[in-house]
Design brief:
It is a single chain. With about 120 residues, the protein is mostly helical. The chain has two domains: about 60 residues; about 60 residues, no CATH class. The chain is built from four helices and no strands. Helix 1 runs antiparallel to helix 2 and helix 3 packs antiparallel against helix 4. It starts with a helix and ends in a 5-residue tail after the last helix.
Length: about 120
């Protein structure tokens, strides 16, 4: 298959996935009425399948972790903890424990993925 078509599948998948996740996050706090998220999810799944069946051949280069990468990982971990806490705060004291554990998992998994891409 043509490499440009494979790249197009991959690009559309990335754009629709990020759009879907952002709209899903917005939908948790304010109802999204201008688009049906189920239809967007179907599009994401279709392009995800096409991306898996027709992968792009990429030459991997060793990536050196920078300080801003570490800061971004910590920021996203804390943001994830806050969002999870907001959604489950009515559980009481266990909501603190769950959100802290989720934040730590986000930070650790993000760092591991960034540090060691070749062994995934």
């Amino acid at each position: 298959m043509n490499q440009d078509l494979k790249a197009s599948f991959n690009y559309v998948f990335q754009i629709t996935l990020v759009s879907y996740l952002l709209l899903l996050l917005i939908n948790e706090f304010k109802k999204v009425v201008f688009i049906n998220l189920n239809y967007l999810m179907i599009i994401v799944i279709i392009f995800g399948i096409l991306t898996i069946f027709f992968p792009i051949e990429i030459k991997k280069e060793k990536y050196k972790i920078k300080k801003r990468d570490i800061l971004l990982i910590f920021f996203l971990g804390i943001l994830g903890s806050i969002i999870i806490f907001i959604k489950i705060k009515n559980l009481g004291i266990i909501a603190y424990l769950i959100s802290i554990m989720a934040g730590v998992l986000i930070i650790l998994l993000s760092y591991m993925v960034l540090k060691d891409e070749d062994n995934i």
